[in-house]
Amino acid sequence: MKRFDYARAADVAEALREGQGDGAAFIAGGTNLLDLMKLRVLTPDRLVDINRLALGGIERDGDGLRIGALVTNSDLAADETVRRDYPVLSRALLAGASGQLRNKATTGGNLLQRTRCYYFYDIAMPCNKRDPGSGCQARGGVTRLHAILGGSDKCIATHPSDMAVAMLALKAEVEVEGTDGARRRVPLDDFYVPPGDTPQVETVLGAGELITAVILPLPAGDRQIYAKVRDRASYAFALVSCAAVIGMDGDRIGHAALAFGGIAPRPWRNAEVDGLLTGQAPSDDLFRRAADLLLADAKGHGGNDFKIPLARRVLIDTLRKATRGDAA
Amino acid sequence: MNKHLKMDRPATERFLDETAQNVLGTPMDRPDGPAKAAGQATYAHEWQIEGLCHGVLVRATIPAGRVARIDADAVTGRDGVLRVISDPRMLRVPAQGGANEAPDQGPDEVAYLGQPIALVVAETFEAARDGALALPVEYDPADFTVDPDAVEPEVPKKKQASQGDLEAAMREAAHSVDVTYTTPGHNSAAMEPHAAIAVWNGDDLLLRGSYQMLKYNRNELADAVGIDPAHVRILSPYVGGGFGSKLGITHEAVAAALASKELGRPVSVTLSRQQVFETTMRRSETRQRFRLACDAEGRMTAVGHEVLVSQLPGQQFSEPVTQATPFAYAGPNRVIGHRIARVNRTCAGSVRAPGEAVGITAMENAMDELAEAAGIDPVQFRILNIPEKDPTSGKPFSSHTLERALREGAERFGWSERRAPGQRREGDWLIGMGMASAIRVNILAEAKARVTLEPDGRVLVETDMTDIGTGTYSILTQVASETLGVSTDRVRVRLGDTDLPPGPGSGGSWGAASSGSAVYLAARAVRDRIAEAMGADEVTLKDGHAIAGNRRVDLAGLFDGPVTAEGHVEPGKTMKETRQSSFGAYFCEVAVNAVTGETRVRRMHGTFAAGRILNAKTASSQCLGGMTFGIGMALTEELLHDPRDGHIVNRDLAEYHLPVNADVPQIDVVLLEERDDYASPIQAKGIGELGICGAAGAVTNAIYNACGVRVRDYPATLDKVLAVLPD
Amino acid sequence: MRTELTINGATHALEADARTTLLDALRDHLGLTGSKKGCDHGQCGACTVIVNGRRINACLTLACMHDGDEIVTIEGLGTAEAPSEMQRAFVAHDGYQCGYCTPGQICSATAMLDEVAQGWPSHVSDDLTGEMDLSDAEISERMSGNLCRCAAYPNIVDAIRATARKEAAE
Ligand SMILES: Cc1cc2nc3c(=O)[nH]c(=O)nc-3n(C[C@H](O)[C@H](O)[C@H](O)COP(=O)(O)OP(=O)(O)OC[C@H]3O[C@@H](n4cnc5c(N)ncnc54)[C@H](O)[C@@H]3O)c2cc1C
Ligand code: FES
Ligand code: FES
């Protein structure tokens, strides 16, 4: 861990002030930032501790819910409203990390956690995300964790979050406050940017900008499932995960929103898949077509080839269960 | 008045069955438990020492070559960094178990990516860690190979064997299988990373470390540093797990000792978890070809087991995969093959039960395949093929409990409920049962121990033996308590100090039987003194009193001063003249997810026999632990090597998947009553590793029974199952 | 930098580099070595301590972020002479072998029972909103953030189940 200055902000304005400049980083739960700093993957000069900011509440927001950026993953998963109305989110959170980590991990930090790519984590290895221009060592290397969709020549790392996948299916918006004090809301679907030639840039968040909240609209479907497939029964990142928010309109699918984890550089969503399902009567044939569409451009890199059939099976199974009504 | 015994004759005297205290074998709580549960047991890194500075090792970032230049000035003097040490005496690899001398030294010569090449010492850990990562190093790279399948392997003559005509037997057999299994590399991954604190007092080195076999470790350390072993003392009273990785002295010990000498200050060096993966022993991956055959009745006629393992150039050790093959099952025609691929990967060495852990596991899969080919129940098939005597050497078995374990285990588990493959489904889950035998060679090792009866009637037991979680504190307490008739709370055991009589060290499962025997012999000598003092030929000792005739005398006050004796046990003819092994049987029920291919172990049972059980609780815990290692081996654990430079990419506990609590069911363990007179004076055998020797095979055999998929490439991760599952 | 830490009810003045994690502060600066370091990256749970009533990984948080917090470590739960119920149960059920993961397991288990009492669901709870029933599967899932290489898991589950029952009976 490189030496840094530590500053504790008392409120948002102070945090934004302290957080200006290239080498500054906000620290919330610290479970991702410190992990990477110890390995010198990240080397901020200045840490701005935002834990004393008043962003720890969960409130009603019109029909929806406003989740402060500092709400811990544990509190969010256990929240009565979330458990009742947004079970897919509770499920996703509870499928992530461990009890101890969820007690520290925050909503904002979780959205911004970095990839678990082995080569990103090892400063002796080239990595375009960590060290732009150095190359991508994952290509041609061990790719079990890597993307089958949305990667680029420069980077095939996956985004590891479970929470963000559920939030994407719930059509969340991220509330951001800029250094000028102005707040804006960015749909989560627009929050993450594709790796392209600049995999070091992961979101639309500008330098020094702070996430203040995540807003969830009233869920458009009451059949919610989070399916997570991993290498051990608990305490492992997703190889493939699928969040489904389905609303039935009689015996047809009235609303479909699907999102996927473990397969792409960002929590993955394909609006065409949702469109294909909406208004249709559930059937295995329909689900297969949805899978075909989702995976049309999927590409394996050897060690992760299995994610293509796995994602397919998980998608079909999740849709069967959701439309049957064996949801969360 | 010491007692020495060489096991040249079977120990037919059942002394410990006739003593009066009745604590030996009971499930006594560990005496070290309260301190451990309260965080009061002090492990290597935890000694509070004035003036301590911290060292962090620097890793090589190329797989082979020479260190051309280390820019020490770039970090020294900044941020509290005191010194960058790159000393030719530092280790390139850890010492193999029992090496008794320094392993390869000279860190400038890089043999694998991740090898330590220097040590950065600073006032604080934070500064040392950062200095180590920031240190600029230049290399002259050299050629290397990292793929064991791509090199021409070495075929050591001594490690090949054959008898009869295997090929003919395969041709003529009613049933045969010719299958190849592979197992990946494993790391011991003890929860306590390797750690050492070195302090010099003049020419004397005191090292607080975390090691398994102190009598060897002292010599290894002395040899590496270049001093007389008489000047080295090592303390390891608590060891946070070893599983082979702490058998020999490791990088941190030598680095701490050298740095401490150079700086004139105490130095602490602890490996990071990543370094534990990169620089401590890995279990080699294996490729194992089995050619097994039987006649129409299921009697085996051929046993062929040919393996390929890998190792760094120049290292003696190679994974003894076929160690138990010569005697596991009957059959006149036999072949054993052993090839070694020399590659630039982290050094291969002992990981819990080297040999059988992978060898018996895969063997038990191949046996499952042959049983199926022959149409015989797998339990019956094994019973049918238990040899009368060692089929290779012709020696008699010292005892053989496999059949009992198989029958009793099958009964307890409900094996008769097993159905044909793919017949049981509960919702998304396909359910299956599998079994395997447990087989592990038994060894008695030379051991000494000292027992003192204090004038107040308390007993002190002393040896440099270690307790790495195995229960040494417990069983030595019980052996002394039983032999001397004092309650266990009046016995104190001191371990893990090279100043104490040398034990065998914790390795190869020999610890309990060997050290237990040494304590027993010492206590017998003290007992003789008590009898003498009572003027009797025979005494009964119970609850701190000696009883002879109608006299009952308190041991407190019987002597004016301490009465001390040393016990010394050595292996002898019984080990050479008999084939000795511990046995057991595993039964397992798994659920395989029909959608995802994920496997969950739902039930697991093990029945084991290992001679006299010294503490039912700690022995059973050893088996639980072994079986859990087996679950990991079956389902999750695998060292992933980069195909280009061979480095271990999943070098942490997030990506090297040890089983977590949710992966492990409430495993059931049964220990059989047994006495093995040929094994040790106390009729005990080793049990510490038995629980892993075959366990994974039961899991993968159950996967086959659940869904009809034979995974021959460990671990059985979901992708391998998925590939064969129907839509 | 200087931080006041409240640990097991006592105040400690820590003078340390801002980089010092709570875990290293406990182990290397304050002599509270009961909390263990197994990975230093949030991957094993050996460092589990209880901060403001909640279990966390002390290795992934900076000491300087914790002034004013109530920190409880294994040393604060009980001693070898006067152990807590959970500590006692771990010894009785042999919920450990080498003992290295044990303080973390015990801190984790102690705080985990509070989470259950508050009705927090887990990944294996069938019903997110119903009563939380502490089955073995629930215990195992909730304790999966604490690795044990000696693999005392079944005994750890026994120890926790016994403690929970005993507390419920009281
Ligand atoms: C062993 C392990 C296993 C894990 N398993 C899983 C898993 O299975 N599933 C899963 O989803 N996650 C998993 N995680 C990741 C965990 O969820 C994240 O580390 C956590 O959510 C990050 O939150 P934090 O508050 O600790 O973030 P921090 O570490 O504090 O911050 C992360 C990043 O976000 C920035 N940041 C934080 N808050 C804000 C804000 N309000 N505004 C702007 N920037 C901000 C920081 O500057 C930093 O760059 C695991 C982590 C570990 C260590
Ligand atoms: S040391 Fe903190 S989780 Fe491993
Ligand atoms: S008791 Fe050794 S790691 Fe758990």
TrEMBL record, chain A:
Q: Which InterPro entries match?
A: CO_DH_flav_C (IPR005107), CO_DH_flav_C_dom_sf (IPR036683), Diverse_Substr_Oxidored (IPR051312), FAD-bd_PCMH (IPR016166), FAD-bd_PCMH-like_sf (IPR036318), FAD-bd_PCMH_sub1 (IPR016167), FAD-bd_PCMH_sub2 (IPR016169), Mopterin_DH_FAD-bd (IPR002346)
Tell me which residues make up the FAD-binding PCMH-type domain.
1-221
- Keywords, sorted A to Z: FAD, Flavoprotein
- Superkingdom, according to UniProt? Bacteria
Gene Ontology molecular-function annotations: FAD binding; oxidoreductase activity
| A UniProt-annotated Pfam family | FAD_binding_5
Query: What is this protein called in UniProt?
Result: Molybdopterin dehydrogenase, FAD-binding protein
Species of the source:
Oceaniovalibus guishaninsula JLT2003
TrEMBL record, chain B:
Classify the source by domain of life: Bacteria
What InterPro entries does this protein map onto? Ald_Oxase/Xan_DH_a/b (IPR000674), Ald_Oxase/Xan_DH_a/b_sf (IPR036856), Ald_Oxase/xanthine_DH-like (IPR016208), AldOxase/xan_DH_MoCoBD1 (IPR008274), AldOxase/xan_DH_MoCoBD2 (IPR046867), AldOxase/xan_DH_Mopterin-bd_sf (IPR037165)
- Give one GO molecular function term: iron ion binding
Gene3D superfamilies registered for this protein in UniProt: Aldehyde oxidase/xanthine dehydrogenase, a/b hammerhead, Aldehyde oxidase/xanthine dehydrogenase, molybdopterin binding domain
Q: Name one Pfam family in it.
A: MoCoBD_2
Transmembrane region positions?
Answer: none
Give start and end of each Aldehyde oxidase/xanthine dehydrogenase a/b hammerhead domain.
38-143
Protein name, entry field: Putative xanthine dehydrogenase
